[in-house]
Amino acid sequence: MPTSYLHPMNKSKLEFALTKRGLGSSYGYIPIIQEQGVIDVDIRFRDGRMHPSWQDIMGHLEMWPHADLNVAIWRWNDDGRDAETSLLTNSRLVPNYWEYLVNLSKYMHKWRSLRVHATLFIKLQSLAIQDVGIVKNQDPIALYLRQVSEYAPLLHEFHLKDEASMSGSIALPALLDLYNVMRSSPRLRKAVFTQVTIPATRDLPPITCSALETLKIVAEPHDFCAGLYYNAVWMLLGCLTTPRLKKLRVGFETRRLVKCFHDFLARSRPPLNILELIKVDLAPKDFKLILLACPYLTELALVSLEDKLTFSNELIKALEETVGILPARSVMLCPNLHTISFNGYGIESFTRLRRMLRHRIEEKSPLQTIRLVCPMSRGSTPDENSSGLHPEEIAELKYFITTHRLGLVLMDGDKFEYS
How many C-beta neighbours within 10 Å does residue 13 have? Predict the structure, then answer.
C-alpha cells in the first residue's frame, strides 16, 4: 500500500490505522482518510526528497477514486526549516516541485481546501525560470489562483499567506485573483489571508459569499490605502456581503477604513459569534455601533494601536450600556458575551472596569473570561506590571475575579495579533 507523510494523527487514531491498514510502526505520518472521504495532501521536504511522492498520491486516488483533496503548499518542513531553504539547498527539487504542482492542478475539481504560501511561489519562480521554462516576470501565484477560480468549484477553505516585502520587483497576487477565487467558490466556508499585501486594482463589483462562516484578514502594518498598494481589508470588505459569517478577524490602522467596516456589517447583517479587531483606530462612537451591529457575540476582542490610551475605557463604557425603550425592559449590548479581550495598558481606573463586570454579572451574563492584551518588549512575558493597572488595582481585580469565579488572562500583544 502506498504511504504518505501527511498530518500526524492522535495516538488512538494512529493505532487504529496501523492495525487496519497494516502500516509499519516506523512511519511517522500516514494518510488521513476522513469520514467524508477526503485525502490530506500536505507537501513536505524530508531526507532531501518531497513527500508525499506523486506515486503515493496516485495510489490513494486509485484506492479512493471518489475522495476529495485537502491541499497544502506550505512553508513547513520536518527538520524545522522552511520550504524555501530546502529548495535553495536542493535545487534539483525545483523541477520536481513544479511537475508536482502541475499534476496536482489536474485534480482541482476534487480540491476541498487549499493552503498556499505566496512567497514560496515567488522563490520557485526565480529558481525555475531555466529548468522549467517559466516566463520571466510571470506571476506564478496569480496564475495558480486563476486556475483555482476556474477549476475548483468544491473549495470549502482557502488560506493564503504572504510575507514578501514590498520593496523590489516582487510579483504579488492581485486582489482580483483572490476575488475571483471567492466568487467562483459557492461552497467556501473559510477564507484566511495572513499578512497579505496586494497591488492596487480597480473597484470590485459586489459579491455575496452566502456560505462563508469564517473570514480572517491580517494585513501588513505598512499596508495603507495609498500609492500603488491598497489595504486588503478595505478592498475586500468594500465588496463582500457575508450573510452567514460567524467569525471575523480583521485589522485596520486608519480611520479611513472604519466606515468601510460599519458599511460591511450593515450590509451583511451577519450572525457573528466571534469578532476580533486587531490594532484598530476607533472613535468613541464606534464602540456602541459595533456592539449594536453584533448582538449575538460570545467572544469579543478589540485591541487598539499602542498609543491610544483611552481605547479600553471607551470599550468598557460601551459594555455597560443597555438598549430598550423602557428601562425595565432594556437589555445589555451583546448579552451572550463569555470572553472579552482588550488592551490592559491604558485603563483609566479599576473602578469603571469593576462596575462594568458587576453590571454584567448582575444581569445574569454568561461572562467567564477577561483577557488583558499587554504590549511586550522582545523576550519578555506578560506580567502584572505590563497590564497598565496599579498593583493595588491588580490585587483588587484578582479578588473580584476570584470571588465571582471569572478567569483573568494576561496576553502578549504580538502573539495575540498573529495567532
Answer: 12
CA 47 to chain centre: 31
0.85 exceeded by the pTM?
no
13-42 pLDDT, tens digit each: 333 232 233 222 233 344 444 445 787 777
3-state secondary structure of 146: helix
Closest among 236, 219, 259, 248 to 181, alpha carbons compared: 236
- What is the enclosing helix (H) or strand (E) of 370? strand 369-374
- Relative orientation angle of helices 93-105 and 54-63, to the nearest 10 degrees: 20
Is 394's pLDDT higher than 80?
no
Does residue 321 carry a pLDDT above 60? Answer: yes
Tell me the C-alpha to C-alpha distance, in Å, between residue 349 and each of 75, 133, 344, 346.
45, 64, 11, 9
At residue 67, the pLDDT reads: 82
- Angle between helical axes of 93-105 and 118-132 (0-180°, round to 10): 110
Q: Is 136 left (phi over 0), alpha (psi -120 to 50) or beta?
A: beta
Q: What is the DSSP letter of 167?
A: S
The bridge status of strand 331-332 relative to strand 49-51 is: unpaired
3-state SS, residue 378: coil
